[in-house]
Amino acid sequence: MQEKWQKFLASLRRCSFRTGVIVLLCAIPLYILSFVQFLLPLSAVAKGVLWTILFGLAKCCQYGGLTILGADGYRRLRQWMKTKKKESGNKAE
Question: Using an 8 Å Cβ cutoff, are 66 and 10 in contact?
Fold first, then answer.
């Protein structure tokens, strides 16, 4: 089991930076849907099942995206955000 898990993580790490960002962005609508579904006229059991599924999928996307990005991708994303912040500050002047 441990060997299969390591192979799975290795295959996620081989994905590109762009794929990691896309997977992370997929988590946002899933988080929104997991809480908006409480407004639907469904039974409490159905709402609980829907919340569990949607919230679980959102967490999978979040952690999968972070695994794809890895530490280097996280640094790259942070650097890009700093650069954008500096550029927007220079345009205001």
Answer: no
Neighbours of 88 (CB within 10 A): 9
Q: Are 77 and 21 in contact (CB under 8 A)?
A: yes
Give the per-residue pLDDT at 75.
Answer: 80
**Over the stretch 52-72, which tens digit does the pLDDT of each residue have?**
999 999 999 999 888 888 777
Inform me whether the pLDDT recorded for 93 exceeds 60. no
CA distance 21 to 43: 35
Q: Which tokens in the block code for residue 85?
A: 């912040």
Identify the H or E element spanning 74: helix 44-92
